[in-house]
Write a structure and sequence with these properties.
With 619 residues, this protein is of the alpha+beta class. The chain has 19 helices and 22 strands. A 6-stranded antiparallel beta sheet has the order 13-12-11-16-15-14, with helices on both faces. Strand 11 and strand 12 form a beta hairpin. Helix 10 runs parallel beside helix 14. The longest helix has 46 residues.
Length: 619
């Protein structure tokens, strides 16, 4: 709606001079009216009382009243004009000799209404006295419809730009005028209607991208050729990524007129592309490790590569592969760690560490800040190497047991997302499968060695006449089990076990008492094999003072019997934590049975009864 105006304006439509000096003003108006009959705007004149004195054909079409019906009737009653200014107010303006113009809502004969632009002017006689008024009305229905459509399109465009994160700007090459769309102002962090200059706009650009944006804008003005650039804008402490493009618009004569620029928020698209790129790199890394494992690479090399790959892909400072060995977690490979850290005990399985927590939960464990961690005690080793944030996942065997953990740690505070965790799990799965294959290969090799040891022992017993069968049995026992020590203890008449042959970790243990508190004694008294996986956590025997000072961690003892008689025990010890399998026990038992047969033959050949030597074998 246009604003109403009561100011003096050029007297458009005012009829001051008759076409024929002999004619009065009304006749002159009618003469002029014949000319006005040809225009497409309604022209109406009234006397001082408001009665219609002229009504042109355009008025007939606009209002629905014929000239015969309209002339003589009151204009207000006929058109029912409605507007911001009351009709009497308009008449008072005209009565002062001034023109009035503005938008009104007019009524048709059928009662329908329409918007119109109306201009009224005073009608003067020859002596310049006011004798009436003349008005021109223009139907604005079409124009208003176009305006509504334009407003709707503008609103739709604004909403579409906001939805798509798009803003536009123009630069007039002649005047230098800049115009920003409201959407672009919003994108940049300015208020609606703002048209900032280059330096004002650059204040919102990421410091690392300022030169790129300045170059983009100045080059677009200089070369006037299409170009584009990507940059970041910092809003509310968050960086958003945008892509800007510019093209040249020409005027009707083909001369350069404007630069038209479009800026689009591509943060989500860029983030998606980066995420896809990151996942592709991660998948390639996992595939490479898997290929490495299948190619027969050593476990040591594979674990080193795994820790280095994790650190590189996740961009962390420290990577670790930690194996669970009995009740300990031992670092077996690492990236960013010191050489002395490899092989170092990281924590005890019974302690509340991140490693034990990860294994117990069988889930990924993320630490945002070790200083704020309350679920477990952070690793002293990692803390000493500057670790602040980290994530660990379990490395599991095919049977579901935990082999160890895989970890990635940063010296600065950072977060780890689901993609990082998935990548770690995939690498851990490769390691777990590789360890299963290595263990299976090791088992096959171990069984082959044990079968070879049995065969060699049998051949020795068949072919050797004077050889030391006890030393031979101990040597083959170490070979078959890959242990550090193996001995044969003979049961004496004094109810003790006397060292006869083999390799022992000390020279200070020639005899062992047969009591339930010793591993060898328990084997004699129960007549069954006795296995100890870790002497440090063993509670059945008084083993600490005997084996712990010498670094012995695991042991397997089997009684050597012949019928009801116990001849002694065959024992193997390891300086590493070992999980002796049933097949290992069977192997030692086989050697013990062969040794018992050899003892029986020697005793029988010498005519000595073992019952006379050892009271424990008497009924």
């Amino acid at each position: 709606m246009r604003k109403l105006s009561s100011q003096k304006t050029p007297r458009l439509g005012r009829v001051e001079e008759p076409l024929n000096p002999q004619e009065g003003p009304w006749e002159a108006l009618r003469t002029q009216g014949r000319l006005l009959d040809q225009i497409d705007q309604a022209v109406v004149s009234t006397d001082l009382a408001g009665a219609i004195t002229y009504w042109n054909p355009a008025a007939e079409r606009m209002f629905g009243w014929s000239a015969e019906e309209a002339v003589g009737r009151n204009l207000i009653e006929l058109t029912s004009a409605v507007g911001p200014q009351h009709p009497t107010g308009i008449r008072s303006v005209v009565a002062r000799g001034e023109t009035w113009s503005g938008d009104l809502t007019m009524a048709r004969r059928d009662g329908s209404t329409f918007p119109a632009f109306v201009a009224d002017a005073p009608l003067l006689a020859e002596d310049r006295t006011l004798i009436g008024a003349v008005g021109v009305a223009m139907d604005l229905t079409g124009q208003k419809r176009v305006e509504r459509e334009l407003r709707a399109h503008k609103l739709q465009l604004a909403e579409a730009q906001e939805f798509a994160g798009i803003g536009c700007w123009t630069y007039d090459l002649t005047t230098g005028e800049r115009i920003w769309s409201d959407a672009l102002s919003h994108i940049w962090g300015f208020g609606p209607g703002t048209n900032p200059n280059l330096e004002e706009a650059l204040q919102h650009v990421h410091p690392d991208d300022v030169d790129r944006v300045r170059h983009f804008y100045t080059e677009a003005k200089r070369t006037r050729t299409p170009t584009h650039a990507e940059f970041r804008i910092c809003r509310n402490g968050v960086d958003r990524v945008f892509r800007a493009s510019v093209r040249l618009a020409q005027d009707d004569s083909g001369e350069p007129a404007q630069l038209i620029g479009v800026v689009q928020d591509i943060t989500e698209r860029t983030s998606t592309e980066n995420e896809l790129r990151r996942r592709t790199v991660q998948q390639a890394a996992v595939a490479n490790l898997g290929q490495m494992a299948l190619s027969g690479a050593s476990t040591e090399f594979l674990l080193d590569q795994a820790s280095a790959t994790v650190s590189a892909i996740l961009r962390v400072d420290l990577g670790e592969v930690t194996q669970r060995r009995g009740q300990e977690y031992v670092v077996v490979a690492g990236y960013g760690l010191e050489k002395a850290d490899i092989g170092r005990v990281k924590s005890n399985a019974a302690s509340p560490s991140q490693a034990s927590y990860t294994v117990a939960s069988a889930e990924a464990v993320i630490v945002g800040d070790v200083a704020l961690e309350t679920r477990f005690t952070p690793s002293e080793l990692l803390v000493s190497r500057g670790a602040m944030s980290g994530v660990t996942v379990p490395i599991q065997s095919a049977d579901g047991t935990a082999w160890g953990i895989l970890g990635a740690h940063s010296r600065s505070r950072r977060s780890f997302d689901s993609s990082d965790v998935d990548f770690l799990r995939a690498v851990a799965a490769v390691i777990g499968q590789a360890m299963d294959r290595a263990r299976a290969d090791g088992e096959l090799a171990t069984r082959a060695r044990q079968q070879s040891a049995i065969a060699r022992m049998g051949n020795f017993l068949l072919t050797s006449v004077a050889g030391d069968v006890f030393e031979r049995a101990c040597s083959l026992l170490m070979y078959g089990l890959a242990t550090d020590y193996a001995v044969f203890w003979e049961l004496t008449a004094g109810n003790t076990l006397r060292l006869v042959a083999g390799r022992l970790w000390t020279d200070l243990l020639p005899e062992v008492e047969v009591t339930p508190r010793t591993q060898a004694g328990a084997a004699v008294l129960t007549g069954k094999p006795v296995v100890v996986e870790d002497y440090r956590s063993e509670t059945r025997f008084d083993a600490l003072s005997v084996v712990m000072p010498h670094g012995i961690l695991s042991g397997l003892t089997v009684p050597v019997t012949s019928g009801p008689r116990t001849l002694g025990v065959l024992s193997a010890q390891s300086a590493q934590v070992r999980q002796f399998r049933d097949e290992d026990v069977d192997f030692v038992q086989s050697l013990a049975n062969m040794l018992a047969e050899a003892i029986d033959r020697r005793l029988t050949g010498a005519g000595v009864l073992l019952d006379e030597i050892n009271p424990l074998n008497r009924n």
